[in-house]
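go over both lines:
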Amino acid sequence: MRSNIVSEAGLQTRLNQWWEGIPFVTSAVVVVCGIIYLVCLLVGYDSFAEVCFSPSAVVSHFQVYRIYTTVLFHGSILHVLFNMLALVPMGSDLERIMGSIRLLYIMVLLATSNAILHLLLALVAAYNPFLPYQYLMDQCSIGFSGILFSMIVIETSLSGVQSRSVFGLFNVPAKLYVWILLVVFQLLMPNVSLLGHLCGILSGCAYTFGLFNSLIPGTSFYSSIEESSWLSSFIRRPKFIMCTGGNTSGIIPTYTGQNPASSGLLSGNMWRNLSSWMPQRESSAQTSQDSDRFPGRGRTLSSGLNQAASTPDSSLQTRLLEDGNNLDRPSQPATTGRLPAVNNPVAPTRTQSNQGSVASDEEIQKLVAMGFDRTQVEVAIAAADRDLNVAVEILMSQQG
């Protein structure tokens, strides 16, 4: 019945469900960038030279604020739409893995490193004794795409795939994928900042190679921020994801080369590959390894609850529907000619199982905080007999 309801939902309902599924920091970045563009459009502000990243302005006037204003301002409606639509799936998956505070810190770190690399390369190009090129010092760059290119590098490193699909048209070697994107965007849109995108790639490479490890705090740093009173109103929101993973270093894991990922990662959508990299409940050893690789709450909360849980049966959808219907109607007394339940040793066990299938608010909130719908969470937990491992798999199979 639920599939019919979803299929008959209107556009507004679908948009609301889509927006509610976006975690806190990712949605906040979309809102901030969107509001800034709309305000600039309404008041007629187009003096982007005052907020863009200009190496000459940073050097001569020490306007370091440009490092962060450049990622929040966009030059056109297509510019902001393209960047935000690219950010939503990729940022959502990263936030569910790392947690909201950790992702925010990563974005700030990438913005800073991109700007520093941009400045250094512009200085080298302008003041080298062989072929000075002053234009890069005066170039004005704005937009979030530099951070997006850094995320693409991290994403490709995490997947471990040998090839990637470019817009679903053709496959290229994974190591060349981001460089081909750089060339394609530059050819299709000559006005984009080549140096800004290049610095995003270099910053992402430096991150995946561990050059920024000393700049990344441990999990206790993020936990202390989450426990502060001034963030309590945000943490209580269902879209906020806690940084409660098992990676104590707080670093985004990089691909170590044990097992190449399945070719199913290349299903045509180049922005949603992270959803296939989540830990799978194959064995206790694999679960332990994945728990270390993926530090975010979105994938480790359930895996740590019951490591010895048995593998769910193949009819999870059937159990979901049956248990969902059982919740809506009260249990009826037996009317058959069998012995009373008091003499039947199986009856008490079934009764206890039904009573235990009622999910507690704490269990529901854990899964709601991962970005799932509350109603679906309640039904999934009931179908899984309160096994959060199975409930997460049910919810993920529905989304898939």
